[in-house]
Each structure stands twice: as C-alpha cells, then as structure tokens.
Amino acid sequence: MTFVLTLSCDNKPGPGTNSSTSINLSENTADTLQIKQLVRQTLIWADSKNSIDLLPVFTDDKDSVYVGLDLNKHKQNLIKLKESNFFSAEFIDNYNKIILKLDNGLRTNKYEPWLVGELPTFGFANDASPWCNCQDNNDWNTVEIRTISLSQDRGEFDWYWGNLNQETHQSWRDFSYRFGVSKEDGKWKISEMEGFKLEGI
After folding, report:
1. Which residues contact 67 (CB under 8 A, 6 or more apart)?
2. The pTM is what?
3. What's the CA gap between 130 and 197, in Å, rounded?
4. Bridge partner list, 134
5. Closest CA to 124 of 69, 81, 61
C-alpha cells in the first residue's frame, strides 16, 4: 500500500514544558500507559463523527468566499472539547484563541480571499490535519509514545507509528508528532499538540 504523509518541519521542542521537578519514569509505568491510551483515544475521537468541525466557516451572500467563522458553532465546539474529557483547559483556551484570531483575520482581510472549495489561505488546518500533521493515517491503535520529559503533573512526548513491517515506507518510520499533557483533577489530559500552534497565525 502507498500512503502520503505531510510531515511537520518543526522538530524543535514545543509543548509540555515542565513546571515541576522531572522524575525518571520508564516507558511502561502506569502514567505512560495512561498517556499512550489517552493519545490513542484522542486521535480516534478526532477522526470520528463525534469530533468538532475545526473551521466552522460561513460565506458571503454569493457563497463564493469564506468571510468569517461561525462563533456560535465555535462555542459548541468548545463544549464538545470539554465534554470529551480528553483535553485540558489549557488546550481548549489555546484552540479558542486560534479560532478568534483566524476569525478576526478573515474579517479584516489579513488573509488572501479564501474561496469556497479551496484550501484555507492561512496555515492552520490547511491540507494536512492538525491532529496528526498528516493526510493519511495508520490504525490509531498502533500509535506508540516516546517520553521527552515527565513530571508529577506535566509531560512532553512524541507519538509515532508502531507495528510497522519491513515493507513500510521510510517516511512512516521517520514520522513523529509532539504533544504535551497535564494532570487535571488527577487525570492526564492533552494540553498541547504541535498542529495547534497559535504562533504564526
């Protein structure tokens, strides 16, 4: 089988900066197993009909150009993110800021006109899915994680495709995606994802 991946060019450390003393944990502790399950469930949810419309746009009177984002639908998106129980308040707040900034940019002509049926004229959710920075995916249940740092209440990880055979294209072997987690009310939640960056929008 042939797949096409859009890989992130940003390999710099990003989400999940530790706010407390790091502790040494192996890849098979209860925490890392919970975090691996969390990211798998998040990606399955994001790829399902229960997910959100990342860009709830509306058009001009001629239905030819996107002129803004539907902030009523956006409020519903924020509720769905919270109710999924996968995302921290930090992640939800960051997504909210992304959408409000994009909406303002569309309304003030910061971006080139975004024609209906075309890709967005800004970087977010343009061509590749921000959930994975990819266009195609393997089985989400094959996702594995690599610990970058982990403390009692915050962590930074890469996820990558596991269970690949020798015939799998090298791009799938090389792929990784940075994400961060934080603990809220005793539960690990996604706090940052590299496809959801406010900077540069």
Report:
1. 58, 59, 60, 106, 107
2. 0.85
3. 9
4. 129
5. 69
Cα–Cα distance measured from residue 145 to residue 179, given in angstroms and rounded to the nearest whole number = 10
Amino acid in position 198: L
- Residue 14 main-chain phi, psi, to 5 deg: -130, -100
CB contact set of 119 (below 8 Å; sequence gap of 6+): 126, 127
d(CA 136, CA 132): 9
pLDDT tens digits, one per residue of 21-45: 344 444 558 999 999 999 999 999 9
Asked if the model's pLDDT at residue 183 lies above 60, the reply is yes
For the chain, give the secondary structure using H, E and C: CCCCCCCCCCCCCCCCCCCCCECCCCCCCHHHHHHHHHHHHHHHHHCCCCCCCCCCEEECCCCCEEEEECHHHHHHHHHHHHHHCCECHHHHHHHHHHHHHHHHHHHCCCCCCEECCCCCCCCCCCCCECCCCECCCCCHHHEEEEEEEEECCEEEEEEEECCCCCCCCHHHHHCCEEEEEEEECCEEEEEEECCCCCCCC
94 phi/psi in degrees, rounded to 5: -65, -45
102 within 8 A of 140, measured Cβ to Cβ: no
